Amino acid sequence: MKLNRREFLALTGKTAAGAVIFAACGLPERELIVQSPVDLPEDLVRGEDAWYATSMGDFTNGDGVLVRVMQGRAKKIEGNPDHPVNRGKATARYDSALQLLYHPDRISEPMLRYSKNGNLVGISWDQADTRFKEALSNANGALTVVTNPLRGTLGSVASKFAAQYGGKHMAFDPVEQGVLHGAVKSVFGQDQLPTFDVSNAHTVLSFGADWLGTWGSPAGNGVKYGEFREGDRGYLIHA
Q1: Contact 127, 110 (CB under 8 A)
Q2: What band does 23 get if pLDDT is binned at 50, 70 and 90?
Q3: What range(s) does the 4Fe-4S Mo/W bis-MGD-type domain occupy (predicted)?
Q4: Most exposed: 22, 83, 131, 136, by fewest CB within 10 Å?
Q5: Which residues in the chain belong to E strands, given as ranges?
Q6: Are 63 and 83 in contact (CB under 8 A)?
Q7: What is the pLDDT of residues 95-134, one digit of tens each?
Q8: Domain boundaries, the chain
Q9: CB atoms within 10 A of CB 67
Q10: Is 0.70 topped by the overall pTM?
Q11: pLDDT tens-digit profile of 156-197?
């Protein structure tokens, strides 16, 4: 193939423009840092997805879920069919959990308020670690660790950490169910939230409880309600 000078220059220009376009489509540097091979799971196989069994502790009564992970990132959450609470059923809350994880406006660094009425300002992890150690050394037993409601190992770690410095661990739930806690403790002597056996009930009386939408475990309640409506159908009264 013979090229004259003008055709050669035109072809060179097109090649350079194409290289610029493909370079712009590449992964940004930050993306490469976040997905560093050092931080990826040891069982990672590139191009293959992995499924991890866990539970939804933030939104439900511990619904069992399976999380699909690709390249070290969670991509999909589905119900775990072997879990006794929701038995593989899922709700929209599962997908919203991924939105919380990847939301661009989420808090991704330590925040510090320099004055009582000032705004929160982002600081480095080293600065946060230094201030945290100073606060612990000056606490003198006046320490309170406040978290969202925690269960299992994580809750035990938070309580032991607070106790080590002479403090206490307190759980804060913006959707507090203290009244239900108190009612169950008064009637049954147990300070915990109940699990209602709707599937074997003859009559369900609900006073404004959105138990199929937002209350307790909607997925688990949905499974029980489906069984409740089969066979000898019971009565549902919603006031």
Answers
A1: yes
A2: very low
A3: 49-105
A4: 22
A5: 50-56, 63-70, 73-79, 111-113, 120-122, 144-147, 168-171, 203-206, 235-238
A6: yes
A7: 888 888 888 888 888 999 887 777 889 999 999 999 988 8
A8: 49-102, 107-138, 140-174, 189-238
A9: 19
A10: no
A11: 898 898 888 888 898 877 666 777 778 888 998 887 777 888
